[in-house]
Amino acid sequence: MFPSSSSPIVYGLTLFLPLFLLFLLAPQFLPLRYNRQPSLISPQDELDDLRLFNLAISRATATSRGGSPKISHLGTVNPKPKIAFLFLTNSDLIFAPLWQRFFESSSTVGLFNVYIHADPSTPISTPEWSVKANFIPAKTTARASPTLISAARRLLANAIIDDPFNLYFALVSQHCIPLHSFKFVYTSLFGKPSSASKAFLTQRSHTSYIEILSDARYLHKRYTARGFGVMLPEVPFEKFRVGSQFFVLAKRHALLVLKERKLWKKFKLPCLYSDSCFPEEHYFPTLLSMEDPKGSSHFTLMRVNWTDSVNGHPHTYHPPEISPELIHTLRKSASSYSYLFARKFSPDCLKPLMEIAKDVIFRD
């Protein structure tokens, strides 16, 4: 029995302990009540997306069973596999002239398609390209939110519906630039255009190029951004992955993304701690790592400089840094593949980049 003199202390601790435990454990059991980040995805948006994804899946299924391929917006059906370039942007495509040069470096226009998800809340002008740029029906997006996942999935779905010969899907932003000619990019993914054939459409062994990291800095903080235990049981911490927001997905993995429902229920939840919540960098790497870990390269084809990042943004290149030496450096990769794209560049980099486009960027 405790001495009588200590009874007030014991009683005080007895009263304080439940309050302390409630404060400690409440976020784990009641995460949504304390959310500081509102949900930006309405039930109607979710329903619209579901219809779109199901249509894309059904179209792809019909094609794989020998159904008649749909003629793309380019007007002809080309039996060779194509790359779908998916631009996800909330501002003008500032490097459109450079991308135009990139597309013009292709000897055959029918080897690619272009799709743009432009945030409807921001006025965006149509790029003056000689190629057809398809602006898809878009929804509002916000940084560090699941709306960017939804936008990427809409781009994938529209590209699959539009042209059954889209076999690779390269997601880029308005701040991204190509580091090689189109011919080099195409050959890196498919081999020489002269040998690429419709047979690629039925092969199931294509590799996706997406960064997948299991030992990234602040990994646990990112995992618990929605509250402790919220991601369970679908996503245990040991299965949680981090990676680049931008990727090059093979068609089989693009369809996997559109079919997936279970993990999406977790990653679309609002966050308690927005400074460590970047679902667009978590969902795709985690999904592919869980469903097909050997089917992805685990590294990205997008070069990004994180040495002096600020508020989650990578290093931004400015005109004084643009040079042939920089392009050659950005191409270098620790893997057997060269980097094909790079980010992030300030708008005033366009002029110096155009000056070295022909003799450096598009000369492989």
UniProtKB/TrEMBL annotation:
Pfam families: Branch. InterPro entries: BC10-like, Glyco_trans_14. It is found in: Membrane. Its main location: membrane. Signal peptide: none annotated. It comes from the Eukaryota. Keywords: Glycoprotein, Glycosyltransferase, Membrane, Transferase. The keyword Membrane applies. The keyword Glycosyltransferase applies. This is Glycosyltransferase.
